[in-house]
């Protein structure tokens, strides 16, 4: 299993203001589903920040995302370790397969792969 990117998620109702603020640092909008917007640095597309009002299909909102090449393997490793799974492994309508796990500091991590 390899990590493809790591992205912080900022919970906020100030999505347009966040777009403008991070735009001052060179970020551009690359995805917007209404409830989550992702900004990326054009010179380094894997350098990303997401701004989320609330997760569409999960009971909690994650603090960060980690994209891996094999989410099923990541899920198996986390389950075997005894880590707390806070949102089960599932396919989402927007093209990702993901689960949420709580890290030792209490942060919720969205672990995903694109289908």
Low-confidence stretches: none
Number of strands: 8
Helix content: 10-25%
Nearest-angstrom radius of gyration?
14 Å
Question: What is the CATH class?
Answer: Alpha Beta
Q: What is the H-and-E element order?
A: EHEEEEHEEE
Pfam families: Glyoxalase (PF00903)
InterPro entries: Glyas_Bleomycin-R_OHBP_Dase (IPR029068), Glyas_Fos-R_dOase_dom (IPR004360), VOC_core (IPR037523)
Domain VOC: 2-114
Protein name: Glyoxalase
What does this structure look like?
The chain has helices spanning 15-23, 71-81, and strands at residues 3-11, 28-32, 36-41, 44-52, 64-68, 85-91, 96-102, 108-114. It is an alpha+beta fold and 115 residues long. The protein has a single domain (3-114), classed as Roll (2,3-Dihydroxybiphenyl 1,2-Dioxygenase, domain 1). The chain is globular and about 45 Å long. Pfam families: Glyoxalase.
């Amino acid at each position: 299993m390899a990590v493809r990117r790591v992205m912080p998620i900022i919970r906020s109702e100030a999505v347009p203001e966040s777009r403008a603020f991070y735009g001052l640092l060179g970020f551009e909008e690359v995805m917007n589903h209404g409830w989550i917007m992702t900004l990326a640095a054009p010179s380094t597309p894997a350098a990303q920040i997401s701004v989320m009002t609330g997760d569409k299909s999960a009971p909690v909102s994650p603090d960060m995302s980690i994209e891996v090449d094999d989410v099923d393997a990541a899920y198996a490793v986390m389950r075997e370790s005894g880590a707390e799974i806070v949102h089960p492994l599932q396919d989402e309508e927007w093209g990702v397969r993901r689960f949420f796990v709580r890290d030792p500091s209490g942060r919720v991590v969205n672990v995903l792969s694109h289908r």
